[in-house]
Amino acid sequence: MRMPPFQLHTPTSLEEAILIAGELASNEQEFDWVAGGTDLLPNYKWHLNVKANVISLAKISEFTELNETHIGAMVRLQDLVESSATHPVLAKAADTVASIMVRRSGTVGGNICLDTRCYWFNQTEQWRESIDWCHKCDCGTEADCRVIPNQNTLCVATYQADLAPVLMCLGATIHLAGPNGARSMALSEFFQLDGMTRNVLQTGELVTHLTLPEDVAEWQGDYQKLRQRESWDFPEAGVAAVWKKNGSAKPSQLRVATTGLESIPMLHTKQVDECLDGWSGAESINELAESIRKAVKPVQNTWFSPSYRRKMVKVLTRRACAGLMEGSS
Amino acid sequence: MAKDGNEDEMVGYRQQPGKLPFAKPGSGGKNQFSRPTDQEMIPESQGGNLAQPWGSHRHDKLVSGQIIGKTTALVDGKWKVTGQAQYGDDIRLPGELIGRIIRSPHHYARVLSIDFSKALELPGVVAIATGADAENKFGVLPVTKDEHAMAVEKVRHVGDLVACVAAEDEATAREAERLIEVEYEILDSIHDMRDGLQDSENPIHDRGKYHIGDANVQKRVFQEFGDVDGIEENAIASHKQNWLFAGVNHAATEPHAVVANWDPSGRLTLYTPQQVPHYVHRALADVLEIPMHQINVYRTFVGGGFGGKSDPFPHEMCSAILARKSGRPVRITFDREEVYWINRGRHPSRIEMNLHADDQGRICGIETDALIDGGGFASFGHVTTYYNGVLHTAPYEIGAFHYTGARVWTNKPASGAMRGHGAVNSRCAVETGLDDLAEQLSVDPIDLRLANLLPPHSATITGFRVTSIGMRECLERVKQESGWDEKFRKMPLGKGIGIGCGFFISGSGLPIHWDPNKFPHATVHLKIDMDGGVTVHTGAADIGQGSDTVVAQSVAEVLGLPLDLIRIRSRESDTSPVDLGSYSSRVTFMNANAAISAAMQIRDELLDATAEITGAEREKLVIGDRRIFAKNDPAVGVSYLEALHKAQEDRGALVASGAYRTPPMGRTHKGAAAGLAPAYSFSAYVAEVSVDVETGQTKVDKVWAAHDCGKALNPLAVKGQIIGSCHMGMGQVLSEEMKYGRSGHLMNPDLLDYKIPSVHEMPEVFPIIVESNDPEGPFGAKEAGEGPLLPILPAVCNAVYDAIGVRTAELPITPDRLLRLIERKCKAEGVGDPLELPSPRLEHSELQAVLSKRATEHAKRDLDRRHNENREPYHNGALFGLDPTTPPDEVDEKWAVNVIPSQEYLADPRLAGSAWKHTERRHRGDD
Predict the structure, then answer these.
(1) Which CATH class, in words, describes the domain spanning A218-324?
(2) How far apart are CA A265 and CA A159, in angstroms?
(3) What ipTM did this prediction achieve?
(4) Across residues B228-238, what is the average pLDDT?
């Protein structure tokens, strides 16, 4: 295993980073951003879509700010876990990421922008050569998708990051900066349904930070993660649920989001609305769990089979919402 | 001279004025003066206080109370923890080149041409080799040599070796890889082991006249012992299960690495982390066509073996070939993925297990059919095919044993030997089957086992000579310490407890490469010069299991020396006596015996010298810590150095060579040698698990693990082996699996997707050491490295049943597989919510009392046989009313031994048994 050579750029401010990116782009040079490196560098070692230039964000101090409503892109996952400013559900989700060594390096921004994963893609070069490459890393061969053959328009690699569903539920806004200035959007609008495009980031654009609404502390909830082992493993499915109760048995507000099931994380607004409309307690939670199970479409490209992952979405949703029923009968 | 508080120890010793009484500083280890003999470490039979409930041992008189039985840090531990141990990839020779291997991207193909002219032009590329550079075949077993250094005609799996390149640095070598153009003709590959049984247009290997039909059957076995025809009549309960075991890999921390160097005198030194350096030595001589004395195999530190580094490997040949071509040292280090391509892990297996019990709760029949997937090469497979059968003929006395086994070649990385070689999967099937039989008979599964054990010093149905047996004690200890009676079939849904047992060889009785009557299994040389330090030359490969430590301990014990006076030289074939290597759990048993035999010779010389100096009676002399003295008057004696120098007067350094050879044993039928061992280990585990019935996730909470290792020479190492075995076995039973995708590719050749249990998955393990004091083992010891792995699999499977009433027949029990079984169970029970499933419960039948009574009687019988040295022979079959003193097949025609299937059997064979439908080419007269 050997790291392919690349030119490393280490800007110390956002402006400088964007400037470097702009220069590289205008010279038609390809580049990647690197934050903690725990996702990008292993992929580089496997020669997955390697670029000649890498711009490190490690020296940009403004990206590490962390308080109740502001999370910098370069906040390390373990710092998020340990900070008293972190929302408990977010801390719980962050605590399930990989292992503590990875969390000490991996960042919030990197986790949000995690590359999608697939059994046919996350392999060494020799291995991928033996399957004649795939759509996500075709090495100039225009290879077909190996998961769902005979369609080479969509990549179905799976988004397997833990933070996004929780942040989406908590109503996070994501803030981007790029050569054309800054822009912001709801995190749920950041992702784009394709395993290769993945999100709305344009060339030269990067995530600077996330913000949470002022009332974030009033939300309660849970995150449930499916995986073979309690360490290291990416989520085979993940369900976040948050709610506001205002004293009554029925939640005044409820949000549920899932990850690890398709190429993007998803906020299940429609299913939740139906659940709240016809609210009947525990039974409604079961119905909600069932409707979310029906809504997700995992494919055969991770450790567990798609059918099992779908079944587990139902169990995980019920368990994530278990706190909702506490104190009510 | 410093006197730091050691004066007390000198009280009562006679001293001569002006003479140093004991060892000189620096020559006696950390402490200058000898310690008084620790009576707690001296066996009762020698007048000490060490209790010997299992009787005395022939090595008792050699015990000096130094170190045997004491918790001892491994002698190479400090090298490892300080990072100074040199593993394969740490060897750096001046001017080294980096070698890379070009591998097949196809499952099965003919190599038409290889064009490496472009690669050779790349600056920095020094040498390129292909199959044409070394056409001689090799393989770990002389009967099944089917490997080449690189593809000679065909590639047999994705990742098979095609060519190799040596360059100035890794980047250049990798660049050169891309420039080598290989033209292939793709052949139809097979991936399902069942297809391997069929005739094929292009069998993966062609063995000429010894080929079995046109199939991919590499080895087939048929064995019948005992009253097979009577099974149906005698059985009142029968268990049948079709198992599917996924292949697993050793996943040792250190990937394979090798450095080859030809020195100016034309000799080759190969630095390699090998478990079995001697076989590499032989294979190198064959492949390179040079005599063995021109090769020095240097075993580096080994970062984990588990069987995965016990074959001679093609990449080892490649580095030697490239080094010869380039005239420079060549280093090849594997990526993790390449480790999976070389594999030699446990065989994916389909095992049909049939167990039968009669009205007395006796095991009146075991019928096993095992089809094992060998992948592209033979490796150890010949032996594995036997082991899948013969290693479950004990520890129980059985009425009939029928075994059909077959190993097939498929277009996958080769399977081979892995910790618990060949015994693990079928043992899991037997032990879960026994659990099911107990359920059917409504008896306690531990009592069922206790009432069916072979006694010590008996012969199994296949004729294995079993000496010491601690099985009963293992079962009793885990039963008691786990609180079995309060928990079994009594816990709520989702909580369960289960039992599993194991039986394993302690050293393979027959060496692979020679007649044991003409050459010993293990040899150890000792050399002691005037400094008093003992240099031990042994060829045993320390692969982390602590073989260096065990040899050092044995020598230290016999000579009464502290461990730091012993230095082990075990690395180089130039200086080490030939040793068969670290496999089949043979090292402690054979090598320590050889070391003791060598040390005894030195001991005799020291005693002679002491008798001469002191005038004391030779027979009364004993060895304590660095002092030899008269037992009846400890004041009469000399220091170790004094005796040594006296012994050296006329001849200089003392040297001795000791060897070990197995006694003659076993029967004469075809295959009788497979599974023969000078001793066998036994183990019993109880596992307690929690199962989440909604997700199918299983967590092992606690394991009580009793292992009979004869005598724990180093209890720390034994416990380490037990706990490590639990971890490894838990991986296979819960999560580890070499997953092949729909296109036949190995989907998870990396440590993220090959799911080794993490620390979170690891249960609390309570290791329990049972010491049955084997009469032939060194100080009574037997193996502890592989046997402890066997029971954890069935113990977990049985505990899962106890928790949720579901029997699994496919490993690993990943949550998705278990959930499918839970759903099926819910359907069968008519339950909508799995949380409402009933837990299994047990109400004893009348048979329970019969079993308890028999178990009590047998416990007495075993105790008698253990202590009575004039015991009668005991052959399997006595439990069924036959005369125990003669092999049953000699007196009862029904018990005749069969190793060829009858026409009647072939009319309706089991899966692996159908391999016998083919006729071997020489038998049908083909060339």
Answers:
(1) alpha beta
(2) 7
(3) 0.95
(4) 95
